Amino acid sequence: MYKGTTPRIRKVLYALIAAFALLAVRLIFVQMGAAKPLSNIASNQYRLAVSLLPKRGIIYDRNRKELAITINLTSVFAEPFKVKDKEFASQKLASVLGASRQDIYKKLSQEKGFAWLARKVSPDIARAVNALNIKGIDFIKEPQRVYPNGVMASHVLGFTDTDNNGLEGLELRFDKHLKGIQGYRYAIRDAKQREVPSYEYKEIQPADGDNVVLTIDNMIQSIAEKELEKGYKKFHAKGACIIVMDPFTGDILALANRPSYDPNNAKGWPADSRRNRAICDYFEPGSSFKIIAASSLLEEKAVRSDEKFYCENGEYRWFGHTYHDHTPRGWLAFRDVIKYSSNIGTMKAAQKLGPDRLYKYIKKFGFGEKTGIELPGEINGVTTHPSTWSKLSLCSISMGQEVTVTALQLSRAMAVLANGGNLVAPRIVESIEDRTGHVIKKFETKKPQRIISEETAKEMRDILRGVVDSGTAELAEVDGYFPAGKTGTAQKVESNGTYSHSKFTASFIGFVPYDNPRLVIAVIMDEPRPFYYGGVVCTPVFKKVTAELMSYYKIWPKEAEKRIKITEKSEIKKNHR
């Protein structure tokens, strides 16, 4: 310091030096550390990026009928800095949009360049908002997923959220294909936040989603759902499902559950209604599982179909446990053991097979593992190894206890008998195509795996025809079409591990016609009331669906075929006279 400088001047000089030092440090910080974030903030104030949403792909049935489509709806947004009188705007918008005035005011008061006010509103609401003529309130077109058939096939299709993300069913499983790729439009804004033309303007067009083609037949699905709904309501069931399947290809032609829901408003339905019971629920099958024991016994030649078993007049004690038949019987040929669904006859026959061989065929028929269908959420079911079985297990499992299955697994098992002995892989998706129709991915029918001989399969078809003709499934009879199948009535297990005497799972899994099968149809009822036998509550649904599908496929009754041939011969003779 110069001589004569007063202490006050020195203090001022020191302060200035310190201030300049701090400014220098701050400048270095801005230049070295904060330059990029600050530059981004400045860039965001004049750069504008608008999302361009793709159109979600269409889901078709096997005949190219639309099951899920996308339409454009109007969404309302605000640019808060442009809205001058926020109180007035909030009040007017709330009355039109049916929203809270406070919520809208809060959105309009944000220090943001963009805020959603309402997504995908009706055309009437969009017109009403537009009529308010409020500066800073604007509109954008957004895609909305629509399911034209409402509840039909809802558990197969699934649904999407507001942003068109798949949440359930095939919408979830194939979301990456259906969703498409989002595009963008980039531009710049002036000091008043107005979009202006510039050389920086750039647009990346969205890529629309691919289409998915199913094996489902819209007409068959409609018939199956209609009849399932009637049965579900008539017998006051807790739940129900139906599957219609091509036994040779594994193609699922219809799959439905009850209760159901409307995917156009999925949030308005309880979660229980959205569960795909056909693949997500497992249950003890009861007598419908006897087809596995019977097929195994015949294939291994452990019994003959005419071999007789004494059914103990309906009561049989084995290792301290008493087993019962619903109808007491004496001696029955093995074919009649299955025909009348005798528990005692089945377990006596199973003792000739033994645990290891029975387990081998349970696994061969695909139980205890997923079928591999393209739907999400499929479970394995439960089968245990013979090393863990008790002395009662062989008898219990042979009649469908101590094992759990899904409706789809039972359908596939019945298909083995219908198609001549081959295990098929269920398929519900046929292909994925782009918007031009070019096939991107083909879901080929997998090569069937032979697990029993054609002779055994034919013998089982004859036996199961007897179940419908004069056995436990007489209510499934469709005159002239000769269906075959197996009933099941299983006690449900209570939380304490004991079998319930008031809760049952009823089932009927059959095919038609028995001598030249075209379709496998499975009907399952969970806790039907007041009747609970599969031969009472499930067979009427099977019968009605079968009758309608035979007409749909133009498969005429055998008697009608004879009459047609006789008429044709008469006409030929008449013309030759």
Which terms summarize this structure?
single chain; alpha+beta; disordered C terminus
Short description, anyone?
This protein is of the alpha+beta class and 577 residues long.
Radius of gyration, Cα only, in angstroms? Answer: 35 Å
Distance between the termini: 143 Å
Structural class: alpha+beta
- How much is the average pLDDT? 90
The portion of residues forming beta strands comes to 15-25%
Q: Identify low-pLDDT runs.
A: 562-569, 572-577
Largest sheet entry? 7 strands, mixed
Considering DSSP H and I runs of 4 or more, what fraction of the residues is helical?
A: 25-40%
Strands, count = 22
Shape: elongated
Q: Tally the helices.
A: 20
What would you note in describing this structure?
This protein is α+β, with helices and mostly antiparallel strands and 577 residues long. It is 37% helix and 22% strand. The strands form six sheets. Strands 2, 3, 4, 5, 9, 17 and 18 form a seven-stranded mixed beta sheet that branches. It has a five-stranded antiparallel beta sheet with strand order 11-10-22-21-20, sandwiched between helices. Strands 1, 6, 7 and 8 form a four-stranded antiparallel beta sheet that branches. β10 and β11 (252-258) form a beta hairpin. The protein is elongated and about 125 Å long. The N and C termini lie far apart (143 Å).
